[in-house]
User: What shape does this take?
Amino acid sequence: MTDAPAMAGGPVLRPPTHISLGYSQSEDRLVLWIGSGEGAPTLHLTRRLTGMLLNGLAGILARSSAMAAQAPADLRDEVVMMEHQGATTAAGPVPADPASLPPPAPPILVQTVNITTHTTSFSLVLRTGEDTEVASLRLSRAELHRVIELLRRQSDVAGWALPVDAGWLAPVSGQVTVN
Assistant: This one.
């Protein structure tokens, strides 16, 4: 996973029409479909890459938040957490009906994700071990928050218990202490 500044002349990135994420118990991998219908590749994400991706994307969102940058240092995590909650509770994509998913294609193992930050968006380019680009997308800040939440939830479904470095992304405890 790399975090690179925006460069001209790169691949043409278009917003995804549809993102679906599931878990393959037999492969012990997350399965990602970008696009819909025939031709949508079946991309496999390993536990290791998912953990790096979750923490890397969370760090990029925290570092690039204009509101968090203006907040006192001890409140920055809370500012990003409120942004995350707003993005993930707003009307967003509805989980896909399994019957609407594309027909299974041969799985492609994603081994690298290149991330580029732009002024108002983020580009992700997914690559194989041979450095072949298999998918690319451009996401708004809110969409990136929703993708992080999908990755976090599906890794929980998989039972992976991935360590999360970002305090704002850690699950909120149901217990509150008031003094």
